[in-house]
Amino acid sequence: YIHQSKQTSGKVLNDISLNDDIIGQVNDEVAEWADTTEKEIANLKKMEVFRKEFIGNVSHELKTPIFSIQGYIQTLLDGGLYDQQINYSYLKKADKNVERLINIVDDLETISTHESGKMIVDYEAFDIVQLAQETFELLDMNADANDVSLSIKKGFSPSIKVYADKDKIQQVLINLINNSIKYGKIGGKTEIGFYDLAENILVEVSDDGIGIGEEDMPRLFERFYRIDKSRSREAGGTGLGLSIVKHIIEAHKQTINVRSTRGLGSTFGFTLRKAS
Ligand code: ADP
Q: From residue 21, how far is each of 2, 5, 32, 33, 34 by CA, in Å?
């Protein structure tokens, strides 16, 4: 009645029958309205906290490489430039940190594109097994450096067609495989398996690395969430990889999940629509 009277003030009276429990109905509506408003306010408050935390995290993440770059450049300016022992290596280190800045900004850009609802999913039919194979090739240097072997699990059809955004799904595979290497063990292995789920294909990336504790699971896909900050940073992580993965899979209206045991390894699984 509240909404109605706002829209059709005056007319509403004609519809009221004396048998209706008008006061009761209005009461229910007011209660419902109060409830919704309260929830909206709580939600806005939560977002505000989230926003503040996010800005804090971003500036912290950007500061680390910026201060490193500043340190190297200042040392070079203070005479280091003429010191053959350090001039080249300091420039190299500054350059590495610039790369890191670019990585962070790229990841932030991907996230903001999705959050502004502008992530366009460019669907096409492609072979996911082949894409996994190509992604392994792309990352074999990283894998070799950590002595991790990358392979497709045995027993699957050599060709499985899915309908999705190929570039974005490759980004998902890159992030998951890179994580399996970064948080893997020396001499470990990363395997990808494919499972038929009627309309969808389940893609699983498994490793036998350090694993994830139960208590960290719920926050894993949050922006900037890292279990071991120093290990992540050392490995070039930004803490944004998994939140990008989640965004991409959600933009496809598909799901992602994780199973893991600390010390034994982790399995990240996501679904994709089968190409008909
Ligand atoms: P990062 O850039 O730090 O790797 P991610 O968002 O990709 O950020 O991952 C978030 C955190 O989740 C990581 O810092 C790491 O602690 C944990 N993590 C992700 N993948 C794995 C994995 N395969 N095994 C163990 N821990 C992982």
A: 15, 16, 17, 18, 20
Q: What is the pLDDT of residues 198-236, one digit of tens each?
A: 999 999 999 999 999 999 998 899 888 888 877 777 777
pLDDT at residue 257, rounded to an integer: 96
Q: Which amino acid is at 101?
A: L
- Measured from the Cβ of residue 226, the count of other Cβ atoms closer than 10 Å reads 19
Q: Which of 128, 62, 67, 54 is nearest to 100 (CA)?
A: 62
What are the DSSP calls for 252-268, one per residue? TT--EEEEEETTTEEEE
- Do the Cβ atoms of 178 and 139 come closer than 8 Å? yes
Nearest-atom number in ligand 1 for the CA of 205 is 23
pLDDT score of 15 = 60
Residue 153 DSSP label:
P
Question: How far is CA 263 from its chain centroid?
Answer: 23
pLDDT at 258 over 70: yes
The answer, yes or no, to whether any atom of ligand 1 lies below 6 A from the CB of 265, is no
| Predicted pLDDT at 17 | 65
* Torsions phi, psi for 273 (to 5 deg): -75, 135
Instruction: Give the pLDDT confidence of 117-174 residue by residue, as tens digits.
Output: 888 999 999 999 999 999 999 999 899 999 999 999 998 788 999 999 999 999 999 9
Pocket test for ligand 1, best of 103, 178, 183, 258 (most atoms within 8 A of CB): 183
Cβ 225 under 6 angstroms from ligand 1: yes
pTM over 0.85: no
242: Cβ below 6 Å to ligand 1? yes
Phi, psi of 29, rounded to the nearest 5 degrees: -65, -40
